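Form 7-S
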Amino acid sequence: MGDSVVAGEYLGTAGSSGSSSWPHLHFQVSDSAMNLIDPWDGSCNSINAGNSWWQTQQPYNVPSVNRICTKRTEVDYYSCPTPELTLEKDTFNLGDSLWLWLYTRDLALNSSMQLNLLNPANQNVLNWNFTVPWATIATSYVRWYYVVDPWFVPGWWTFEAVYNGTTYQHQFYITGGTAGIESNASKSNFLIYPNPSNHSITLKGMNYSPGDKLNISDAIGQTLRTIEFNIHGEDPLIETNELVNGVYFIHFVADGRVITQKFVVQH
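Output:
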């Protein structure tokens, strides 16, 4: 109380004030007589309309990524007043769940975001587009899920998002350790992306041969589709338009064994 500030001085970081039900900070400006001042010029300013107190006032919407990170789960554990546990994780073993998270603000409806996954050799080995399906809201998040299998070679990986002309990056490390799955790669180790899926999925690293097949089942085990291969190929594309939102499984039958991966449909 009573401290003075000057133009350009750092005061703090703005959060989701005004659109958050969790604890947050309100920023209020008053003159020397304690009369309220609205530092933002705009249609909602009924106090000193037409007079912005910012040297450079930002637009009302600033589409951007607030944070890019990796986690071990899709859940945020939070119960006021205890501190939030974000469950972020940057080191993963084979068999671990890998969640790629983006916390965002003001994303524009139908705008496009480019997602890239760069391996330790800095090669862009996975890339897909995400189209924003909702009307502009102040804060939101998107996430994608993978299981770390031998397709993920050991070393430093980079998760990258390109949106509205800005590139956001986060690095994470894959160890050579195992967590209950085979350490030797074979043709039946594959990766599903994007996951969650909107219109289609690609099975990266699935080098199939004549006689191999895959089954798609729902969460209760009902087989919805069977695909049998009669040629050699890799990275098949599977349409998911007709699947309703939910959890599904791909069972790849090859070399006398079955490899199962989970994916989510989210239209």
